Amino acid sequence: MIRRCCAPARTFPSVISGCWRPPTMAELHRILIAPRAKASLQPALSVEAIAGRGLRGDRYFLATGSFNRAECFTHGRQLSLISLDAIAECNRRLGLALPAEEFRRNLVITDLDVPLLLGRTFRIGDIRLRGLRHCHPCRLLSRLTGADMMDGLKGLGGIRAAILNSGTLYPGDPLRLE
Protein backbone atom coordinates (compact mmCIF):
# COMPACT_ATOMS: atom_id res chain seq x y z
CA MET A 1 0.00 0.00 0.00
CA ILE A 2 1.29 3.44 -0.92
CA ARG A 3 0.98 6.10 1.73
CA ARG A 4 0.64 9.72 0.76
CA CYS A 5 3.33 11.86 2.39
CA CYS A 6 3.33 14.93 0.18
CA ALA A 7 0.63 16.52 -1.98
CA PRO A 8 1.98 18.30 -5.07
CA ALA A 9 -0.40 18.40 -8.02
CA ARG A 10 1.60 16.01 -10.23
CA THR A 11 3.16 13.17 -8.27
CA PHE A 12 4.32 9.61 -8.83
CA PRO A 13 4.58 6.78 -6.33
CA SER A 14 7.87 5.51 -5.04
CA VAL A 15 7.71 1.72 -5.02
CA ILE A 16 10.66 1.52 -2.64
CA SER A 17 9.66 4.06 -0.01
CA GLY A 18 5.88 3.95 -0.50
CA CYS A 19 6.01 7.74 -0.56
CA TRP A 20 4.66 10.11 -3.22
CA ARG A 21 7.27 12.37 -4.77
CA PRO A 22 6.98 15.14 -7.34
CA PRO A 23 8.91 14.36 -10.55
CA THR A 24 10.33 17.91 -10.57
CA MET A 25 12.66 16.83 -7.73
CA ALA A 26 14.25 14.09 -9.84
CA GLU A 27 17.72 14.75 -11.19
CA LEU A 28 20.77 13.09 -12.67
CA HIS A 29 22.99 12.16 -9.73
CA ARG A 30 25.89 10.34 -11.45
CA ILE A 31 27.14 9.48 -14.91
CA LEU A 32 29.07 6.20 -15.24
CA ILE A 33 30.74 4.79 -18.35
CA ALA A 34 33.16 1.97 -19.18
CA PRO A 35 35.17 1.62 -22.41
CA ARG A 36 34.74 -2.15 -22.76
CA ALA A 37 32.96 -5.20 -21.38
CA LYS A 38 33.74 -6.02 -17.75
CA ALA A 39 35.86 -2.86 -17.34
CA SER A 40 35.13 -0.84 -14.20
CA LEU A 41 32.62 1.94 -14.68
CA GLN A 42 34.11 5.37 -14.14
CA PRO A 43 32.29 8.53 -13.07
CA ALA A 44 32.17 11.33 -15.62
CA LEU A 45 31.63 15.07 -15.09
CA SER A 46 29.71 15.13 -18.38
CA VAL A 47 29.03 12.85 -21.31
CA GLU A 48 27.92 13.38 -24.88
CA ALA A 49 24.67 11.52 -25.62
CA ILE A 50 24.37 10.63 -29.31
CA ALA A 51 20.84 10.07 -30.66
CA GLY A 52 20.26 6.46 -31.69
CA ARG A 53 23.75 5.38 -30.54
CA GLY A 54 24.51 5.86 -26.86
CA LEU A 55 26.94 7.66 -24.58
CA ARG A 56 30.22 8.58 -26.26
CA GLY A 57 33.04 6.54 -24.71
CA ASP A 58 30.77 3.85 -23.22
CA ARG A 59 31.14 0.16 -24.08
CA TYR A 60 27.81 -0.06 -25.91
CA PHE A 61 28.47 3.09 -27.95
CA LEU A 62 31.83 1.56 -28.91
CA ALA A 63 30.21 -1.87 -29.58
CA THR A 64 32.52 -3.52 -27.00
CA GLY A 65 29.88 -4.37 -24.36
CA SER A 66 29.20 -7.87 -23.05
CA PHE A 67 25.85 -8.04 -24.81
CA ASN A 68 26.60 -6.22 -28.09
CA ARG A 69 24.73 -7.52 -31.10
CA ALA A 70 23.69 -5.97 -34.41
CA GLU A 71 20.34 -4.87 -32.92
CA CYS A 72 22.06 -3.28 -29.92
CA PHE A 73 21.25 0.33 -30.80
CA THR A 74 17.63 -0.25 -31.79
CA HIS A 75 16.71 -2.49 -28.87
CA GLY A 76 17.68 -0.39 -25.91
CA ARG A 77 21.38 -0.62 -25.16
CA GLN A 78 21.91 3.09 -25.77
CA LEU A 79 21.90 3.82 -22.05
CA SER A 80 20.66 2.44 -18.75
CA LEU A 81 19.22 4.20 -15.69
CA ILE A 82 18.80 3.18 -12.06
CA SER A 83 17.55 5.10 -9.05
CA LEU A 84 19.71 5.92 -6.07
CA ASP A 85 16.91 4.47 -3.90
CA ALA A 86 17.15 1.14 -5.79
CA ILE A 87 20.89 0.99 -5.09
CA ALA A 88 20.26 1.64 -1.40
CA GLU A 89 17.51 -1.01 -1.27
CA CYS A 90 19.68 -3.61 -3.00
CA ASN A 91 22.51 -2.91 -0.55
CA ARG A 92 20.03 -3.25 2.34
CA ARG A 93 18.72 -6.58 0.99
CA LEU A 94 22.23 -7.97 0.61
CA GLY A 95 23.74 -6.38 3.72
CA LEU A 96 26.41 -4.69 1.59
CA ALA A 97 27.60 -1.19 0.74
CA LEU A 98 28.30 -1.49 -3.00
CA PRO A 99 28.98 1.83 -4.75
CA ALA A 100 26.91 2.92 -7.77
CA GLU A 101 29.69 1.82 -10.15
CA GLU A 102 29.14 -1.84 -9.20
CA PHE A 103 25.56 -1.77 -10.52
CA ARG A 104 26.79 -1.23 -14.11
CA ARG A 105 24.11 1.31 -15.06
CA ASN A 106 25.06 4.51 -16.90
CA LEU A 107 22.88 7.05 -15.14
CA VAL A 108 21.92 7.19 -11.46
CA ILE A 109 18.75 9.20 -10.84
CA THR A 110 17.57 10.68 -7.54
CA ASP A 111 14.02 11.02 -6.22
CA LEU A 112 12.07 9.03 -8.82
CA ASP A 113 11.40 5.35 -9.33
CA VAL A 114 12.99 4.81 -12.71
CA PRO A 115 10.50 2.10 -13.87
CA LEU A 116 7.84 4.84 -13.98
CA LEU A 117 9.66 6.09 -17.09
CA LEU A 118 8.89 2.94 -19.10
CA GLY A 119 7.00 3.77 -22.28
CA ARG A 120 7.33 7.50 -21.59
CA THR A 121 9.28 10.30 -23.18
CA PHE A 122 11.25 12.38 -20.71
CA ARG A 123 14.16 14.81 -20.57
CA ILE A 124 17.34 14.90 -18.56
CA GLY A 125 18.66 18.39 -19.05
CA ASP A 126 18.23 19.09 -22.78
CA ILE A 127 18.34 15.43 -23.82
CA ARG A 128 15.06 13.72 -24.79
CA LEU A 129 14.87 10.03 -23.91
CA ARG A 130 12.30 7.25 -24.25
CA GLY A 131 12.03 4.53 -21.59
CA LEU A 132 12.10 1.21 -23.49
CA ARG A 133 12.33 -1.80 -21.19
CA HIS A 134 13.40 -3.11 -17.82
CA CYS A 135 17.11 -3.63 -17.24
CA HIS A 136 16.97 -6.88 -15.32
CA PRO A 137 20.03 -7.96 -13.33
CA CYS A 138 22.12 -10.69 -14.93
CA ARG A 139 24.53 -13.36 -13.76
CA LEU A 140 27.44 -11.33 -15.11
CA LEU A 141 26.66 -8.64 -12.54
CA SER A 142 26.69 -11.28 -9.79
CA ARG A 143 30.01 -12.71 -11.03
CA LEU A 144 31.64 -9.28 -11.19
CA THR A 145 30.50 -8.21 -7.71
CA GLY A 146 30.64 -11.59 -5.95
CA ALA A 147 27.14 -10.87 -4.57
CA ASP A 148 23.72 -12.33 -5.43
CA MET A 149 22.65 -9.35 -7.54
CA MET A 150 19.85 -11.39 -9.13
CA ASP A 151 18.15 -11.44 -5.72
CA GLY A 152 19.32 -8.05 -4.51
CA LEU A 153 18.08 -6.18 -7.60
CA LYS A 154 14.89 -8.20 -8.11
CA GLY A 155 12.35 -5.63 -9.30
CA LEU A 156 14.90 -2.81 -8.94
CA GLY A 157 17.28 -3.19 -11.91
CA GLY A 158 16.34 0.06 -13.63
CA ILE A 159 15.51 0.57 -17.29
CA ARG A 160 17.06 0.93 -20.73
CA ALA A 161 16.30 4.04 -22.74
CA ALA A 162 16.69 5.38 -26.26
CA ILE A 163 18.36 8.73 -26.87
CA LEU A 164 16.10 10.87 -29.10
CA ASN A 165 18.36 13.92 -29.58
CA SER A 166 22.07 14.52 -29.19
CA GLY A 167 23.63 16.77 -26.56
CA THR A 168 25.55 16.72 -23.30
CA LEU A 169 24.46 15.35 -19.91
CA TYR A 170 25.72 16.73 -16.59
CA PRO A 171 25.20 15.59 -12.98
CA GLY A 172 22.52 17.83 -11.49
CA ASP A 173 20.51 18.02 -14.72
CA PRO A 174 16.80 17.87 -13.85
CA LEU A 175 14.60 15.01 -15.05
CA ARG A 176 11.28 16.14 -16.50
CA LEU A 177 8.42 14.14 -17.95
CA GLU A 178 6.95 15.26 -21.27
UniProtKB/TrEMBL annotation:
Q: Which residues form the MOSC domain?
A: 42-178
- What terms describe the molecular function in GO for this protein? catalytic activity; molybdenum ion binding; pyridoxal phosphate binding
Tell me the superkingdom of the source. Bacteria
In terms of Pfam families, this protein maps to:
MOSC
Region forming the signal peptide: none
Name listed for the protein in its UniProt record: Sulfurase
Species this protein is from: Zobellella endophytica
Q: What is the organism lineage in this UniProt record?
A: Bacteria, Pseudomonadati, Pseudomonadota, Gammaproteobacteria, Aeromonadales
